[in-house]
Amino acid sequence: MADDAQDPDIDDLKRRMDGAMSSLKQEFATLRTGRASATMVEPIHVDAYGQPTPINQVGTVNVPEPRMVTINVWDKSMIGKVEKAIRESGLGINPVVDGPIIRLPIPELNEERRRELSKVASQYAEHARVAIRNVRRDGMDQLKKAKANGMSEDDHKVWSAEVQEITDAAIANVDRALETKQEEIMQV
Fold first, then answer.
1. pLDDT digits (tens, 9 = 90+) for 129-142
2. Which UniProt keywords apply (predicted)?
3. CA 140, 141, 145, 146 torsion: positive or negative?
4. b/e for 150-184, b at 16 or more Cβ within 10 A?
């Protein structure tokens, strides 16, 4: 490969594709699967002291049972705000206040809700695939510019194959993650 200045930045492309995958994992973590998980409440922010604050910064989040999440609120004056934030979050869970502890009983998911969640997971995965394909397109655009600036045909083919290879690997990772999440959602 004659001129390294023309070569696409494969590490940058991989990093960006990995970013799409980690974003997908964060989105998957917010999906309720019928089993308790501390990550379910991570996206919830509480209006604490005039600032939107992540719920894990106003209390300790625990999973004492497979179908129960507890939040031990540190500042007793925040209990009502934490409860309100959970109710308004769209999780579909009714918090139960027990002194400084807020309990979140996770109800069993019915078949219809499982299918809906599975479709949402599929949409999240498709967004990740699109992001990965956009990174691939950027890499291919870099190659076209490099070819126009004198990159040899052989180098162009080698780099194109490399970009396609990392794209295929990233999309396979998304598909595996989706399959795992859908199995988790559909498990009764």
1. 999 999 999 999 99
2. Cytoplasm, Protein biosynthesis
3. negative
4. ebeeebeeebbebbeebbeebbebbeebbeebbeb
d(CA 48, CA 82): 9
Structural domains for the chain: 4-29+110-186 (1.10.132.20), 38-105 (3.30.1360.40)
pTM across the whole model: 0.69
Tens-place pLDDT, residues 132-179: 999 999 999 999 998 898 888 999 999 999 999 999 999 999 999 999
- Tokens of residue 166, six digits: 């990392």
Q: How far apart are CA 115 and CA 103, in angstroms?
A: 26
Alpha-carbon span 58 to 60, nearest angstrom:
7
- 57 to each of 50, 62, 66, 101, how far by Cα in Å? 14, 13, 23, 15
Query: Length of the chain in residues, anyone?
Result: 188
Query: Which residue has tokens 């390294």?
Result: 4
Residue 119's alpha-carbon distances to 66, 112, 126, 151, 185, in angstroms, are 24, 11, 10, 44, 10
